[in-house]
Amino acid sequence: MVAVGVGYAPIAMTELWPYAHPGAPAIGESFLAHLTNPRYVADAVANRLGPYRHSLAALVVHSVLGGLLLLLGPLQLLTAVRRRARLHRALGVVFAVTVYVSMAGAAVYLLRTAPRDAFSGPAFWIVLGAILVGTVFSVTAGIVAAVQRMPEIHQRWMLLCYGFLMTAPLLRFEWGALPVFFPGLSMAQINQIAVMHLGSVVAFGALLASRRLDHRAELPGMNGSWLPWWVLLAAAAAGAAALGWITDAFLAAGGAQNHRLLLGYLLPFALTAAVMLARLRRAVRDGRPWAAEEWRIHLVGLSLAPVFSVLCVLPFERALDLDRVTALSAATAIGCGVLAFWATATTGLRALVARELAKRQQSSPPAALAPVEAKPVG
């Protein structure tokens, strides 16, 4: 993931040059055209100047600073691993400020662009908005965790933030890879398929990285689980029912593209759930309650993601005047990312409560020994 982000950084920084200065080299477009075919790329960018023109300066700020963030993220991780605290804090301030300014540029674009004018349609506009909010709130929560002196939770939030930033290069990667499986589709159609699972992929990657960096088997002050087996079972049942409704809605809509959208959602969802369940069982078997608790929280979040998506369909239809399939596509595309955010927040709260309980246990005086009553002899 880090290699992809670092490799994409110069492409991100120069991506909008051709729109600002006609004739400027388009590194990303040229590379993608060489990887796929020039017509595939030319058709995708042919009508982009109109929507970009209203907020081109903001988009340039967003893309240039976004590329910088893809470089700063690995530097942050490296300084944290090598325990260079002062440098890590300084880079952290730069990273956070850059996130806010970059996302402000993205917000200007979204506010000035009608959902129907977004690339591949309104669903992508909603996805971009969700990524923007997730990125800003993740870095903010990371700052709060650092102030609270909870480095492991701070690390989780910053990895999730970097995961949201990684949606840009991973999306370009899928623009180049998915035509192998779906030849003949336009880039807009490929984009519709890719965003169905993009949020879940980056959130799952952030979770895997967090678990790999956290070697603690137990958490002082953590007694039992907030999510016993019946909660897991109830969440799984609710998620299965919601998945059934989503599947039926896509199939009822008909059309090969709708079937592809459903496949793009269900396959990564099933793989992610299988890995989470396997990791949970291994953590329980190996006697690592903290790891098991985190996997349990994220598994419940993943199970409830389809429920959240189903609940979003009607509001999207009413508020944005969308048809059922477009609203459903947008809702399913953001569900896993939103619930991954909830799971990370719940994990942080779980760690905070455990820390406070551990402090109370350490500060409370030991119970005084009761005097032994002498018994008469005979």
Spatial gap, N to C terminus: 81 Å
* Helicity range: over 70%
Count helical runs. Answer: 15
Supply the helix-strand structural class.
mainly alpha
Largest sheet: none
- What are the secondary-structure elements, in order, as H or E? HHHHHHHHHHHHHHH
Estimated share of beta-strand residues: under 5%
How does the overall form come out from the CA principal axes?
globular
State the oligomer.
Answer: single chain
Question: How are the SSEs placed, and which strands pair?
Answer:
Blueprint: H1 2-14, H2 17-20, H3 27-35, H4 38-45, H5 49-53, H6 56-81, H7 85-112, H8 122-147, H9 151-165, H10 167-181, H11 187-213, H12 229-253, H13 256-285, H14 289-320, H15 324-363
Helix pairs in contact: 1-6, 3-4, 6-7, 6-9, 7-8, 8-9, 8-11, 8-15, 9-11, 9-15, 10-11, 11-13, 11-15, 12-13, 12-14, 12-15, 13-14, 14-15
Pfam family, one: DUF2306
Organism: Streptacidiphilus pinicola
Keywords: Membrane, Transmembrane, Transmembrane helix
